[in-house]
């Protein structure tokens, strides 16, 4: 019977008392107890022991087995791995762990990645596509019955769902809820919330499980998206504002009453005030600031109480969430009317008064003068003065026999008027008219004088006025001298004032009112940055003192007519001066009467930029910068010249110079350095990290060019024959290629960073949204 070591399982010979493999003493076969072990010494006495014969190693497999009875099957010892095997095993486990971790991260990012919603116009449809649709695109709005009106898109916080308005016709303005996923789009799922919604009158709730919307009849609703049921909240609502951050609802009714509602029911609904003009909640949602009549109030929601902060307000321009505001008042201002009238007729009128007995033809316009009857006529010949201008007298003569003609006479320095008539064959006749008085009557005398005779028997047949005296018609009434009605108008001017409205800008800083500026233009634009109380506006300045000339008046002119002339004259005589104010302190910019445009603050609101047009031929000028501060003492700094237009991106200033004659291309600069040459103006998009999309080789005949990505001086051509594009970032760009100027459509492609463009659709006229 074979013998095995009960400790390691190796096969032994029957006579072996010790295991040659593990060295342990073997139990006695009969008693089962271990034999007594005799220690060995380093020296031997007597003859040395015989060497132990070499025993061949048995061919067995080992397993890691516990102590085994000598009668049991042999137990295989545990396998020991080499160093190389251990390294390979550990490396494989690490790789497997990394793969699992990468998959977890992928699915996490997959759930939060941007969807790149692309909406575009194709023929009479608006279409939408998403990357997850694998090239499919779906029409969800048909616009053939009405011009394309899809607008007002509002997204939830994860951009997974969208609210938008579909203006189906001139009467129906529909509000839809659109899930932005492939399943919903493939099935054509979209939820009609209302078919008569007020324009831009809708908002997601804070938890985004419902929608607030206002219908055209003034009813305010809350729509439960899960139950697909509307709940009517209030009627007679003109507008509403949902404060999503604090989950509070404010609305104005048709009587301008301001109401408050807590959607969670923690605070009771209530009316804050009536006749509200403007309001804004504070950032923490505990206070509402509003204007009522001419005063600004603060309403404490917790205390249900209003406190008046300031008064004498006509119109609030900008109201901030901390209760500070810019506002204007319209003050009626007046000046003596005579200060605005230039009496340029004073000397002439005085001379006319002094020489009022001097006879002049201008006094007798339209007057008829009758002479003595001739023996052959029952009618008297007459002379009619038709007009007097530029020292010329135009008259008509009719003798009722032979002569009836109209001619001109030159007024001489002595007051007479002479007509020169050239006779045939060199003859010349002068007809001289003079005015004189006989008693109280005025007489017109005509004298015909032969100055030079014609040849004998020739020179007859000319038209001439019969010599003699002509008496003024008794039916002629000499008009009132101009100086008389002007004297009456002068008296009215002396007793009247010119009234006009002066719009004054104020700033309320929470404790006091600061006067900022006056003569504010109604066309001013205003800025509402989140952190700084900055306001942008313009005011009208007169280039020079303006006056209306009294010679522009006539005998029917009133002082009211003069005031209207002053109004129109002042308007044409003023220049618009750009200004801004910080904390109520004004900084005005002197543009020297030139046309300034493109006013922009930079992103940090630390500088204000504008372009001053100086060259009409190429529409270029100088780009200026003014530092923003509240000391009002900053002066403009000229940055760059010959600029056609500019754009601000972060802290960088981008601008165009060297515009081509056809104005199709220009050179793009940034902060004084040329960034790209020959790009299409107005078709550049500034992306993150200094990257810019530009259009090169733009052609007016095809309205297309080459789309290029500029990355810190490196050019990457994206596509050629691009008509229009929209860039979400440098890794996703939608573009219309192969544009037809006949059909005004092209092919829509997307660039996602790969080598090949992704075809989306054809017959596309425009890109509407890229989110």
Query: What is the end-to-end distance?
Result: 86 Å
Let me know the largest β-sheet. 10 strands, antiparallel
Task: Give the helix proportion (percent range).
Answer: under 10%
| Order of strands, widest sheet | 5-4-3-53-52-51-50-49-48-47
| Low-confidence runs | 29-75, 143-148
Number of helices: 5
Number of strands: 53
Mean pLDDT: 80
> What structural category arises from helix and sheet content?
mainly beta
Residue share in β-strands: over 45%
What's the overall geometry? elongated
Description:
- The protein has 771 residues and is mainly β.
- Helices cover 9% and strands 45% of the residues.
- The protein contains five helices and 53 strands.
- The strands form twelve sheets. Strands 5-4-3-53-52-51-50-49-48-47 form a ten-stranded antiparallel sheet, with no helix packed on it. It has an eight-stranded antiparallel beta barrel with strand order 25-26-27-28-29-30-31-32. It has a four-stranded antiparallel sheet with strand order 6-7-8-9, with no helix packed on it.
Topology:
Layout lengths: L2 E2 L6 E2 L70 H30 L5 E5 L2 E5 L8 E5 L7 E6 L5 E7 L5 E7 L2 H5 L4 E4 L2 E8 L5 E6 L4 E5 L4 E6 L2 E7 L4 E6 L4 E4 L8 E4 L2 E6 L5 E6 L2 E6 L4 E6 L4 E5 L5 E12 L4 E2 L3 H9 L13 E3 L11 E8 L2 E7 L5 E8 L5 E6 L5 E11 L2 E12 L15 E5 L9 H13 L2 E12 L4 E5 L16 E9 L5 E2 L9 H14 L1 E9 L2 E4 L7 E6 L5 E9 L4 E8 L9 E7 L2 E4 L2 E6 L8 E5 L2 E7 L5 E2 L4 E9 L4 E8 L2 E16 L2 E9 L4 E7 L6 E13 L1
Parallel strand pairs: 24-36
Antiparallel strand pairs: 1-2, 3-4, 3-53, 4-5, 6-7, 7-8, 8-9, 10-11, 11-12, 12-13, 14-15, 15-16, 16-17, 18-19, 19-20, 20-21, 22-23, 23-33, 25-26, 25-32, 26-27, 27-28, 28-29, 29-30, 30-31, 31-32, 33-34, 35-37, 37-38, 39-40, 40-41, 41-42, 43-44, 44-45, 45-46, 47-48, 48-49, 49-50, 50-51, 51-52, ...
């Amino acid at each position: 019977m074979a013998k095995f070591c009960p400790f390691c399982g190796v096969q032994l010979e029957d006579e072996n008392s010790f295991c040659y493999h593990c060295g342990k003493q073997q139990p006695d076969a009969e008693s089962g107890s271990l034999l007594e072990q005799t220690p060995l010494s380093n020296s031997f006495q007597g003859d040395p022991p015989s060497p132990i014969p070499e025993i061949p190693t048995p061919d067995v497999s080992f397993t890691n087995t516990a102590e085994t009875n000598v009668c049991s099957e042999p137990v295989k010892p545990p396998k020991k791995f080499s160093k190389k095997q251990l390294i390979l095993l550990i490396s494989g486990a690490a790789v497997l762990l990394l793969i699992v971790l990468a998959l977890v991260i992928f699915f996490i990012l997959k759930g939060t990645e941007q969807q790149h919603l692309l909406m575009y116009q194709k023929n009479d449809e608006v279409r939408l596509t998403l990357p997850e649709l694998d090239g499919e695109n779906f029409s969800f709005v048909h616009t053939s019955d009405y011009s394309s009106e899809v607008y007002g898109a509002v997204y939830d916080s994860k951009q997974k769902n969208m609210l938008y308005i579909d203006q189906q016709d001139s009467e129906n303005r529909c509000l839809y809820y659109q899930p932005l996923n492939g399943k919903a789009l493939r099935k054509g799922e979209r939820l009609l919330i209302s078919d008569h919604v007020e324009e831009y009158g809708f908002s997601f709730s804070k938890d985004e499980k419902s929608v607030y919307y206002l219908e055209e009849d003034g009813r305010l609703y809350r729509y439960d998206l899960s139950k697909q049921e509307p709940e009517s909240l209030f009627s007679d609502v003109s507008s509403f504002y949902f404060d999503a951050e604090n989950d509070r609802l404010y609305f104005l009714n048709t009587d301008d009453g301001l109401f408050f509602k807590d959607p969670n029911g923690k605070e009771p609904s209530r009316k804050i005030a009536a006749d509200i003009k403007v309001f804004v909640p504070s950032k923490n949602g505990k206070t509402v600031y509003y204007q009522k009549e001419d005063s600004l109030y603060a309403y404490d929601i917790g205390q249900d109480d209003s406190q008046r902060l300031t008064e004498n307000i006509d119109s609030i321009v900008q109201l901030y969430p901390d209760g500070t505001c810019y506002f204007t008042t319209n003050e009626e201002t007046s000046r003596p009317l005579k200060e605005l009238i230039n009496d340029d007729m004073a000397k002439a009128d005085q001379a006319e008064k002094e020489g009022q007995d001097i006879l002049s033809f201008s006094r007798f316009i339209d007057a008829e003068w009758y002479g003595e009857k001739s023996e052959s006529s029952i009618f008297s010949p007459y002379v009619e003065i038709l007009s007097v201008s530029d020292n010329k007298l135009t008259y008509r003569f009719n003798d009722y026999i032979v002569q009836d003609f109209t001619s001109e006479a030159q007024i001489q320095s002595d007051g007479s008027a002479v007509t020169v008539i050239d006779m045939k064959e060199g003859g010349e006749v002068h007809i001289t008219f003079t005015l004189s008085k006989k008693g109280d009557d005025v007489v017109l005398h005509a004298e015909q004088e032969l100055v030079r005779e014609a040849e004998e028997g020739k020179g007859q047949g000319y038209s001439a006025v019969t010599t003699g005296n002509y008496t003024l018609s008794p039916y002629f009434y000499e008009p009132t001298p101009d100086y008389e009605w002007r004297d009456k108008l002068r008296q009215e001017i002396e007793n009247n004032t010119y009234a006009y409205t002066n719009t004054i800008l104020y700033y309320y800083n929470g404790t006091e009112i600061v006067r900022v500026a006056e003569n504010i233009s109604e066309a001013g634009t205003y800025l509402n940055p989140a952190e700084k109380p900055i306001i942008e506006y313009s005011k009208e300045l007169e280039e020079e003192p303006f006056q209306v000339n009294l010679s522009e008046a006539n005998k029917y002119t009133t002082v009211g007519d003069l005031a209207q002339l002053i109004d129109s004259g002042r308007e044409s005589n003023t220049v618009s001066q750009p200004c801004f104010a910080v904390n109520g302190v004004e900084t005005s910019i002197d543009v020297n009467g030139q046309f300034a445009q493109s006013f922009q603050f930079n992103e940090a609101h630390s500088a204000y930029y504008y372009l001053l047009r100086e060259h009409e031929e190429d529409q270029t000028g100088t780009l200026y910068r003014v530092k923003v501060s509240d000391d009002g003492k900053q002066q403009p700094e000229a940055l760059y010249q010959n600029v056609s237009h500019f754009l601000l991106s972060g802290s960088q200033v981008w601008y165009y110079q060297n515009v081509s004659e056809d104005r199709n291309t220009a050179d793009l600069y940034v902060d004084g350095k040329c960034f790209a040459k020959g790009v299409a103006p107005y078709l550049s998009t500034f992306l993150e990290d200094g990257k810019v999309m530009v259009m090169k080789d733009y052609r007016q005949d095809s309205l297309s060019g080459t789309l290029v990505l500029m990355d810190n001086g490196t050019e990457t051509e994206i596509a050629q024959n691009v008509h229009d594009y929209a860039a979400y970032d440098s890794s996703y760009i939608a573009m219309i290629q192969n544009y037809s100027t006949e059909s005004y459509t092209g092919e829509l492609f997307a660039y996602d960073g790969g080598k090949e463009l992704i075809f989306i659709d054809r017959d596309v006229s425009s890109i509407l949204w890229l989110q």
